Protein: Ferric uptake regulation protein
Amino acid sequence: MTDSSTLLAQAERQCQRRGVRFTPIRRRVLEMIAGTSGGLKAYELLDRLAVEHAAARPPTIYRALDFLIEQGLVHRIESLNAYVACPCPEHAHGFQLLICRHCGRVEELHLDDVNAQLAARAHNLGFRVERQTIELLGSCDACLSATANA
Structure:
């Protein structure tokens, strides 16, 4: 897992290259998400942000999240309705998420051959993919070890 200071530095460079504004609120939302190994829900982010910025409201969070997703800095975990930092925002291809159902840890994979096979199959069926989400729910090694030793 990439540390949050590295993710923030990558995000700043990427936003600068693209000519988009990485505002203090966007930075703080990314920092909060990057500071956890699992996903955070929008209202969890709002509760944390409201401690620092009393004027923070749901649109504040959702606008920041929309920006971060658009820039490839954050992914939405569809099954949990939560958000996780992308450890490699420069990777422009699809991704897969491994989600531990016990501790909530999320790991990102980049199995490009899987994405290529899915895209080719969809194309052959005359289907245009607009968005792809692959989430694998299971147990991480730490949780498996903990249950085995219990």
Remarks:
- The mean pLDDT is 91.
